[in-house]
């Protein structure tokens, strides 16, 4: 059997230590995720770290550190596809980014232990757990700070609905009133809602917006003949 010929005790023990360290550290990261009831919990993070360590250790055993570096690059790409699977978009909201980032870090921990850099893997594990726990109060504190509309970077849209016979004129009124208020229009589109309902959407060029000024423009547009409804909304770029 080739196994008997190729088996070496000390390299095998080195692999055992590397994989065991990856499993323990991945479990530590996953335990916090499991407690938070995230999509990728204890088992997922443990397996990601273990798999990354196994691939890197295999490259080290077969062809040395040069091959391990190439294996690490493939591990990073593979984890990118795995992370994309936990990211979900719900309307304007995106969920799962932090979970995907944690999986990425778990793979990095596994790569460290697979390359026999266990101390570095322990250090990285500490930073990952700290990022998911100690930074949470800071995030909550920042989220409670009121947003200054004058300083925030956002996309602003003015939406106007009018009678079909007044659409062309309403489009001109919309652009004229906004530019007269020093809010240049970057794009104007027609948003059809079915059954003949059409809405004109004007996207403002990136600029600071005063809510009261924009409300005044909207109020003037509402008084124009044929205009049924006017409103404005903002959404952050990030």
Write out key terms for the chains shown:
single chain; 238 residues; alpha+beta; Alpha-Beta Plaits; 2 domains; four-stranded antiparallel beta sheet; two-stranded antiparallel sheet; transmembrane
Report what the structure shows.
It is found in: Cell inner membrane; Cell membrane. The structure is a single chain. The chain is of the alpha+beta class. It has two domains: 2-143, no CATH class; 154-236, Alpha-Beta Plaits, CATH 3.30.70. The protein is built from nine helices and six strands; from the N terminus they run ααααββαααβαββαβ. It has helices spanning 2-6, 9-35, 42-63, 65-84, 97-114, 118-133, 135-143, 167-180, 211-222; strands spanning 88-90, 93-95, 154-162, 185-194, 197-204, 227-236. The strands form two sheets. It has a four-stranded antiparallel beta sheet with strand order 4-5-3-6, with helices on one face. Strands 1-2 form a two-stranded antiparallel sheet. The longest helix has 27 residues, at 9-35. The radius of gyration is 28 Å and the shape is elongated. The model has no long low-confidence stretch (mean pLDDT 83).
């Amino acid at each position: 059997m080739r196994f008997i010929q190729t088996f070496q005790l000390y390299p095998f023990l080195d692999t055992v230590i590397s994989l065991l360290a990856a499993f323990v550290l991945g479990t530590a990261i996953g335990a916090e995720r499991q407690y938070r009831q995230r999509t990728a919990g204890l088992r997922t993070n443990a397996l990601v770290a273990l798999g990354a360590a196994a691939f890197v250790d295999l490259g080290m055993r077969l062809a040395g550190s040069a091959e391990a570096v190439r294996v690490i690059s493939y591990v990073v790409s593979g984890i990118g596809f795995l992370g994309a699977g936990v990211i979900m978009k719900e309307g304007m909201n995106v969920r799962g980014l932090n979970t995907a980032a944690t999986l990425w870090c778990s793979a990095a921990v596994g790569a460290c232990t697979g390359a026999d850099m266990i101390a570095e893997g322990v250090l990285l594990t500490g930073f990952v757990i700290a990022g998911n726990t100690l930074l949470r109060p800071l995030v909550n504190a920042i989220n409670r700070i009121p947003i200054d509309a004058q300083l925030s970077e956002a996309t602003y849209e003015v939406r106007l609905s009018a009678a079909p016979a007044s659409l062309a004129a309403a489009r001109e009124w919309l652009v004229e009133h906004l530019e007269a208020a020093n809010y240049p229009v970057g794009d104007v589109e027609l948003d059809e809602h079915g059954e003949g309902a059409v809405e004109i959407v004007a996207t403002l060029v990136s600029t600071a917006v005063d809510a009261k000024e924009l409300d005044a423009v909207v109020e003037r547009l509402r008084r124009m003949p044929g205009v049924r409804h006017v409103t404005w909304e903002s959404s952050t770029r990030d």
